[in-house]
Amino acid sequence: MNQTPDAARAKAAKEHYLAMIAENRRFWALVAAETDNDREWVPNDSQTSALGIVLPPGTGDTWLGVLADGEALLQGRILIPYWRGPEGQGINLGKMFDTPAPISITGWAQGWAAVPYIEQGPVINDTSLRQFEALMGGNAGLMMVFLN
Q1: Which residue in 14, 23, 35 sits closest to 94, CA to CA?
Q2: Residue 2 lies in a domain
Q3: Is 99 a member of any domain?
Q4: Which of 72, 113, 135, 138 is the least crowded, having the fewest Cβ atoms under 10 Å away?
Q5: Total number of domains in the chain
Q6: What is the pLDDT of residues 54-80, one digit of tens each?
Q7: Quick one: CA torsion of 148, 27, 8, 98, rounded to 10 degrees?
């Protein structure tokens, strides 16, 4: 873990995650536009899944809210709360992908390893994730895998 991550791979991973979010948006727009109810893998609110998986109404919009938070984190528009920093500061995840450094668990616990990534700005809240979890009952983790 104390080795410097490959910068090109970190950049490629970030680009991949952002592309996945963009494709998810495109996918859910197409799902919402469907009017039939024929062998649906992932149904919209007026369809039934051919797989027998019940998706509650609002699944697409709620999931897109979670992905919007992920995108904002990857782009550095919102920050991850960091327990050692004051309120209004957090970790810029996008910067971690852009300028990767060795990960020192003790350094993160002590705070010095986080310093290059700490910024002032809006910090993410758990609203979108909690809404998704509430909608999915006890299956939020499984549904995250299914929807991606």
Answers
A1: 14
A2: no
A3: yes
A4: 138
A5: 1
A6: 899 999 999 999 999 999 999 999 999
A7: -90
Q: At which residue do the structure tokens 């809006």 appear?
A: 122
Residue with tokens 């616990």: 109
42-57: burial string, b at 16+ Cβ within 10 Å, e else? bbbeebeeeeeeebee
- Spell 67-85 as b/e; 16+ CB within 10 A means b: bebbbbbbebebbeebeeb
Which two tokens mark 25? 């948006």
| Mean pLDDT within 102-116 | 93
Which DSSP helix (H) or strand (E) runs through 91?
Answer: strand 89-91
**pTM of this structure:** 0.90
Structural domain of residue 11, as residue ranges?
A: 7-147
Domain annotation covers residue 90: yes
Residue 148 structure tokens = 């991606």
